[in-house]
Amino acid sequence: MKARVHVTLKTGVLDPQGEAVRHSLGALGFEGVGEVRIGKVIELEVAETDRAAAEARVREMCEKLLANTVIENYAVEIA
Amino acid sequence: MKARVHVTLKTGVLDPQGEAVRHSLGALGFEGVGEVRIGKVIELEVAETDRAAAEARVREMCEKLLANTVIENYAVEIA
């Protein structure tokens, strides 16, 4: 089963990578760009064939590895 | 206007980051994980108020900075 995990920084957490991109866009002449926030999308194949089991497993993966739950939120999509 | 850019590796391009995550998941006891692919989601505010103009501008940003078009695909969403 295919799963997709969206990992984004929690609101209020500074995004240095986003800031760097914003500055670079300005340097390239793209004026008026507001806040830039960068997240991850992780696509993976899991062996489970049952949707609920697959979702629970992927959530466990998020808690243990895929997301830093102190500063990041994650959302799991089972395709 | 808020825009969201999805940047993913083109099919066939090796994803070392994804491979590293797959190995780490295995080491944490998550067996049976197939291919892992990692992409980026970039959320940004643009000054344009017209949708078409905003999309064209963000596409230009992708071509120049946000995506490496040799190995990456990008998709633009205007919220």
UniProtKB/TrEMBL annotation, chains A, B:
GO CC, alphabetical: cytoplasm
EC number annotated for this UniProt entry: 6.3.5.3
Record's signal peptide: none
GO biological process: 'de novo' IMP biosynthetic process
Single GO term (MF): ATP binding
Short name of one Pfam family: PurS
Keywords: ATP-binding, Cytoplasm, Ligase, Nucleotide-binding, Purine biosynthesis
Pathway: Purine metabolism; IMP biosynthesis via de novo pathway; 5-amino-1-(5-phospho-D-ribosyl)imidazole from N(2)-formyl-N(1)-(5-phospho-D-ribosyl)glycinamide: step 1/2
Compartments, record wording: Cytoplasm
Catalytic activity: N(2)-formyl-N(1)-(5-phospho-beta-D-ribosyl)glycinamide + L-glutamine + ATP + H2O = 2-formamido-N(1)-(5-O-phospho-beta-D-ribosyl)acetamidine + L-glutamate + ADP + phosphate + H(+)
Protein family according to the UniProt entry: Belongs to the PurS family.
Subunit relationships: Part of the FGAM synthase complex composed of 1 PurL, 1 PurQ and 2 PurS subunits.
Function summary: Part of the phosphoribosylformylglycinamidine synthase complex involved in the purines biosynthetic pathway. Catalyzes the ATP-dependent conversion of formylglycinamide ribonucleotide (FGAR) and glutamine to yield formylglycinamidine ribonucleotide (FGAM) and glutamate. The FGAM synthase complex is composed of three subunits. PurQ produces an ammonia molecule by converting glutamine to glutamate. PurL transfers the ammonia molecule to FGAR to form FGAM in an ATP-dependent manner.
Name by which UniProt lists this protein: Phosphoribosylformylglycinamidine synthase subunit PurS
Species for this entry: Amaricoccus solimangrovi
